[in-house]
């Protein structure tokens, strides 16, 4: 049996890229609260922007604000029908985090269950985070 060659050599196929892990996931309670906030906002918002800023007695704190647009550098997480936009500087600190929403008689707030959290201050307003270790 004779093989017919087209005269060209097959191009080297690039290695398949490993799927990127989802930076964060949401509990049902967090997704429901984000949906409520999105619908009740005074102006059109595309979701919530989540990040980390320096400050507080433990060194860092989580930030959550309305996102009116998607920036080219945002990490877009769509989960349970809502969008959160993660600040690119916060991605390594938030990798693997579950965002929850808890409400009781005294307070209502988003809670971050973060495997990268080393410690938290006594008042609960700030945390110490380390960047996630990524297996290569």
Automatic annotation (TrEMBL):
Belongs to the HesB/IscA family. It holds the Pfam family Fe-S_biosyn. Residues 1-22 are annotated as: Disordered. Transmembrane segments: none annotated. Coiled coil: none annotated. This is Fe-S cluster assembly scaffold SufA. Residues 24-125 form the Core domain. It comes from Bradyrhizobium betae. One of its GO terms (biological process) is iron-sulfur cluster assembly. GO terms for cellular component: cytosol. InterPro entries: ATAP, ATAP_core_dom, Fe-S_cluster_asmbl/transfer, HesB-like_dom_sf. GO terms for molecular function: 2 iron, 2 sulfur cluster binding. Residues 1-12 have a biased composition (Polar residues).
């Amino acid at each position: 049996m004779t093989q017919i060659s087209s005269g060209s050599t097959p191009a080297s196929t690039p290695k398949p890229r490993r799927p990127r892990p989802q930076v964060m996931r949401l509990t049902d309670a967090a997704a429901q609260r984000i949906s409520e906030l999105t619908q009740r906002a005074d102006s059109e918002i595309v979701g919530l922007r989540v990040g980390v800023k320096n400050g507080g007695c433990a060194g860092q704190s989580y930030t959550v604000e309305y996102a009116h647009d998607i920036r080219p550098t945002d990490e877009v997480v769509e989960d349970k029908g809502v969008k959160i936009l993660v600040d690119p500087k916060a991605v390594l600190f938030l990798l693997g985090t579950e965002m929850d929403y808890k409400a009781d008689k005294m307070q209502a707030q988003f809670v971050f269950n973060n495997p990268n959290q080393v410690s938290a201050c006594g008042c609960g307003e700030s945390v110490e985070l380390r960047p996630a270790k990524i297996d290569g």
